[in-house]
């Protein structure tokens, strides 16, 4: 048995990109996956794909800006499969732009999704992990927080806030819970679709050498498959060509 077989893993932002690749890989390796995002048609199609391949998947519409939706995702895992072993908080938006543009609505959306969305996941899963005496938080952050560059300060700030909170959570977690942050570099996904044209032009150049989302999925799987007493704290996965 690998350390993934039989685990119950909930994934936010599961309908596309890194979340989708992670759900597919973990299901292929024997996890029962619980899929959350807003576009339900994507979740339904992904769950059907996983089940056709012999895996098990459940899904529920989850907007991570709503605390009750995260509670619903965790509840679904428990109702359908009896417990929750791992919460992958992966949903995120990268509405990058110059600060001078004062796109305050975009700043707020990044804080609501990237930061508060992760906190709501912690609020939903932590009591369950405590009750079970085991559990694993995996939070998708970004190399944007490791090398801060123009246009990305608010986005990087939300990701570094999650990095900091994750370390605090690890310290408070005691010896039975695990906390992992994964920092992807450029990954070829739909992530750039909502960026403003100037930002998108710069990022599209980086995307020429971007990774496939599978590379990040494999890093997440590596953290999950470790024996219970092994906490992989921090993984950085970027293209070799990335500055
Ligand atoms: N691509 C990169 O280069 C890169 C690099 C570093 C880090 N990341 C991080 O990786 C994570 C995944 O992004 P990705 O690259 O895979 O892009 P993506 O394909 O755009 O995936 C982002 C996912 O987040 C979901 N999402 C957005 N707002 C949400 C909300 N309010 N509630 C629930 N789900 C929401 C979207 O689903 P719905 O729209 O259906 O809700 C989507 O499935 C993000 O946290 C991102 O910051 C990406």
From TrEMBL:
Keywords: Oxidoreductase. Pfam families: adh_short (PF00106). InterPro entries: NAD(P)-bd_dom_sf (IPR036291), Sc_DH/Rdtase_CS (IPR020904), SDR_fam (IPR002347). Belongs to the short-chain dehydrogenases/reductases (SDR) family. This is NADP-dependent 3-hydroxy acid dehydrogenase YdfG. It comes from Streptomyces avidinii.
């Amino acid at each position: 048995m690998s350390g993934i077989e039989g685990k119950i893993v909930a994934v936010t932002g599961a309908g596309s990109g890194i979340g989708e690749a992670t759900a597919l890989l973990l299901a292929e390796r024997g996890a029962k996956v619980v899929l959350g995002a807003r576009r339900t048609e994507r979740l339904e199609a992904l769950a059907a794909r996983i089940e056709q391949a012999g895996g098990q998947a459940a899904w529920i519409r989850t907007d991570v800006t709503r605390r009750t939706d995260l509670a619903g995702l965790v509840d679904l895992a428990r109702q359908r499969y009896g417990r929750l072993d791992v919460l992958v908080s992966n949903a995120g938006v990268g509405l990058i732009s110059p600060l001078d543009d004062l796109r305050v609505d975009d700043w707020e959306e990044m804080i609501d999704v990237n930061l508060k969305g992760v906190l709501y996941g912690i609020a939903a899963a932590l009591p369950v992990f405590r009750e079970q005496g085991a559990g694993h938080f995996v939070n998708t952050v970004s190399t944007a927080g490791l090398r801060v560059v123009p246009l990305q300060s608010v986005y990087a700030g939300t990701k570094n806030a999650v990095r900091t909170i994750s370390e605090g959570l690890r310290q408070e977690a005691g010896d039975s819970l695990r906390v992992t942050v994964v920092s992807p570099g450029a990954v070829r996904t739909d992530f750039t679709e909502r960026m403003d044209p100037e930002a998108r032009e710069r990022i599209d150049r980086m995307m020429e050498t971007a990774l496939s989302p599978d590379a990040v999925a494999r890093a997440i799987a590596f953290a999950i498959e470790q024996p219970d007493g092994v906490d992989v704290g921090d993984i950085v996965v970027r293209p070799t060509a990335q500055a």
